[in-house]
Amino acid sequence: MTVTVRFAPSPTGHIHIGNARTALFNWLFAKKHAGRFILRFDDTDTARSKQEYADGIQRDLHWLGVRPDVTVHQSARFDTYDAAVERLKELGLLYPCWETADELERRRKIRLSRRLPPVYGREALKLTDEQKRAFDDEGRKPHWRFLLPNFKADPFAPERTEVHWDDVVRGPQTVDLASMSDPVLVREDGTYLYTLPSVVDDIELGVTHVIRGDDHVTNTGAQIALFRALAAEPPAFGHHNLLTTVSGEGLSKRTGALSIHSLAQEGIEPMAVCSLAVLIGTSESVSAVRSMDDLAERFEPSATSKSASKFDPAELQTLNRALIHAMPFEEAKDRLAALGVAGDEAEPFWLAVRGNLDRLADAASWWRIVQEGPETKPVFAAEDAAFLDVAFDNLPPEPWDRMTWKIWTDRLKELTGRKGRALFMPLRIALTGREQGPELADLLPLLGREGTLARRP
For the purposes of burial, counting CB atoms within 10 Å of the CB of 350, is it exposed (0-12), middle (13-18) or buried (19 or more)? Predict the structure, then answer.
């Protein structure tokens, strides 16, 4: 059996880091088991689903390093769902209901007032043919519910019916079907809710493991029952904890909060997002992981906490810096070339500046400083200006290497008596125009003697 997983977003907005968590859990699970990853667009809601969002989701997954083996669209599979509906009707497991939302709410309140579970009482099963015709004559359209197998002979006498599964993330789980309402599978307008297309697709695409957010735990019992009603063996299920904002609010595609697209535009590294999205809320410490292969080795679904995890964007910045500071030149080379950083000096430049970058794109400004000088001409107090005259008069002869900085500053200490910040800061500002930055011992060989003299105030 080939392990087969799926990520099933609705193309109704940009995916965010919470969605990425689900995608990555599935992708890494497939990698660990040499399995297949299916991207399935749940786009049966044709009014809200947009191709631009589907394209964006594929782009964002590719940016993260997730490469689907198969991509399918539910909007192209309505005939398959229609056939499943007819089969359930023939089995007597899908029945029409005409109640309005207001009527259902009134019944729910009545049941609560009687201290009964607020579940649907299957009143539609008691309707006579004449009553059904009357609804039809009024122009009322039915919605269709799946009859849960939570009774022996009388559907109006449900009894405790436990569904068990060993959750890939949470361990042994139990749901009582008697505590649930028969789920609506088809709306009044004939469109499908999530459950039926999802189950039918999982069957036909050979999905072996469904890994998703823990907001779906309570749905699992009914879905397992639906798999069995369609004569299929249910897949294994896993439910990971959800991410929230620092204030505890849920993430939403519609608001664009922490969207993968926005993080990419901000210059965040893909593996910073992947590392945080996967490791947060697990027993693993959150640290910058350099590759998907390394992350797959650390990934263990069962190590995930059962409570929601708060996502702090500041952690992304920390991870991003760690990845940039350790990034080998070969990994950065093409991206640096796109920024104009190329030639024989590109590698020593990168090794000199990477430890001071928050984002790779920040290298461009340091490249301009190395090549052209400070962005604005520094102005110095008379005392510092006099010191710099001495400094530039005493530049060491070439060739220059990393020891040149020490040779130069040791000489200046002897000549001027300056040391510490009073010695180093005027030199740094004269050479770079900034008070902070890469080690001048690394920058000086890149500037060369001629380039350094050109920066004399």
Answer: buried
